[in-house]
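Thought: the user wants the 3D structure for the chain below. I'll pass the sequence to the structure tool as-is, report back what it returns, then summarize two notable features.
Action: structure_tool
Action Input:
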Amino acid sequence: MPTATITKSAMAGVKRKSAPVKNGHVKETKKAKVESKFAVRTKSKAKPAKKEKTPSDSDSDDLDSDEDGGVPLTSYEEEEEVAEESEVEDIPKVADGLHPDRAKAVSTNTQSSREAHAKQKQLAQERKAAKPLADQLARTKKIWERLRRKSHVPLEERKALVTELFDIITGRIKDFVLKHDSVRVVQTAIKYANPEQKRMIAKELAGTYRQLAESRYAKFLIGKLLVQGDDEIRDTIVPEFFGHVRRLIKHPEASWILDDVYRGVATKQQKATILREWYGAEFVLFQKGKSEEVTGELSEILAEDPGKRAPIMRSLQELINHLIQKKLTGFTLLHDAMLQYFLNAKPGTEEITEYLEIIKGDEEGDLLKNLAFTKSGARVVCLALAYGTAKDRKQILKTYKDTLRTMAADQNGHIVILAAYEVIDDTVLTAKSIFPELLSKDAEKQVENIVFSANDINARTTLLYLFQGRSKALFPSSHSSDLEILAEIDIVRTATSKKDPEVRRSELAKALSPYLLKAIETAAKDLVASSFGAQFVTEVMFGAEGDKTAALKAIAETAAGDPTFVQPETTEEENPEPASHVGNTPFGGRLFKSLIAGGRFDSKTKSVIPVVPALNFADILYPNIKDFIIEWATGSSSFVVLALVESDTFSKKDEVLKVLKAEKKTLEKAAREETMEQKAKREEMEKMAKETGKKSKYVSNIGNKGSALLLEKLK
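Observation:
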């Protein structure tokens, strides 16, 4: 080893700052210790690289872990060995200017330390080898190390390794699952197991699932079994949680797997059994038989025995409050329990008032934010808005300040925004609190967000609701639950809100209109490129308040060009433009036809109810389609031209009729021949019939119906 260089100041004995001296004396031992430390620290050299562990070393070290917790770390013995080597290299030699006796003493002590640690390491390895299943554990971990790299293992080798793995663990799985390293082996076995092997593992672990759920690592094994297993495995695992729900939901590890089981895999009856335990000890001790159906609806339980109401409500509130105080507010099970309490609390009493205080009591707002993204939780927030005072509603809205955009696109969260529209009387507060956060305060991002929202099945409701109301077009069957919640709010708000609902809606629509009209003016081409976007534009034009001239002009300009043009098929990266002209799409034709008509069609009166003031879109559109009027009249959007001819406000009607008369033969041909849409539909039905071996029942009215109706106008 090269001789270390000692600085001149060190050899001369640099005076170091020392601790205060008591009574003018310092013990000799203290002085010697300081000198020794100084001698070692004056060495200036790079720290030796840590010795790299081999796979066998890693496996051996892992076997010594009996505790369920932690992750594999570098072994203590190796760290000590590295430290020893560093310490030996840092010892100055006699040539460095130290006394020979001191250098010899340090060297002797270091050598003894190395020998002692070598013996300790040997003893540790012997203890590991003496443990039960030591060889099997080591082998299974080598198999796991190979299997986890699926793409690097040939199929035949993988099958052989899985077979060997099951030969080792079968009958001994309980010995593997409570160690952080070996439980991964069992999870890998489940991953590659066939259904019978998975059932075997589940049966062998029966009776231990509650213990596994409380384990930091073994809880993931339960999730693996439930996700990849079948109904038999589910019915083996889930009942083991019955009778322990109140304790497990408070456990830092078990609570998460319990909620995953409740939310993801449990049957309706299993969910009811789990939820019932929140209602008190009685429902834990006296559970009904497996074959007997139970209900988790608190209203039904209280209807059978009203005398139990007080203790049940008290037990439910205590557990809810406990979890909220512990900041465990993300559980679906908690949200379902909170909804049951809210639905059975008596309106106008302290129960509602105190419950609202509990909900608002979470200063960070995590509870309200988590509630908004589950079905039951969103309903709880809607009821809180409906029952709350003006101050309560303002506080709830403030909590969602940074979350509104995410909520709008969520299948549950968007209903909270609709509820706020319906119950908050201060529409100025609603507009200032919601619209800038929902759409962004940046003008460019506003347009981007509106285009996104227009094409999102959830987010679009938060914008169009103020214009369309509760129409079937806005709330399809998949959103029927939204209408049920809104109907529920209607009943509650009669006692808590004062403003007329129609006035409230009109004021909010007026406040939202400038944002949407500006977006249509700026990004009309992007909006009309999709069915949802075209419908969005139509409804905004009919319902918005303010100057619509610029927006209507931008919409009309999207119709320019040849309506028969079809963009060659390319990838989205090569050409993000729409595949065809807007006039060559069914939704584009509906958009222009509706705007020319100037209002919504009323199915009751069988007539169009024009908006006020009138749009007069026909005169705005015509200059953009004038050069291709025949292509429009004979194409897929022929009804656009028919709408022009039938419009009472269109000033160029005679000019259009003159052009059509000159091309009468073209119209007659289009009225007779099969259109492109009809041909595509027929071919699709014939293909399906051929695949199924059945005769096609598709019957098409051959010819362009719009062209045929235009011919009648020319007579």
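Final Answer: Structure generated. Confidence is low (pLDDT under 50) at residues 1-96. Residues 559-568+578-713 form one domain.
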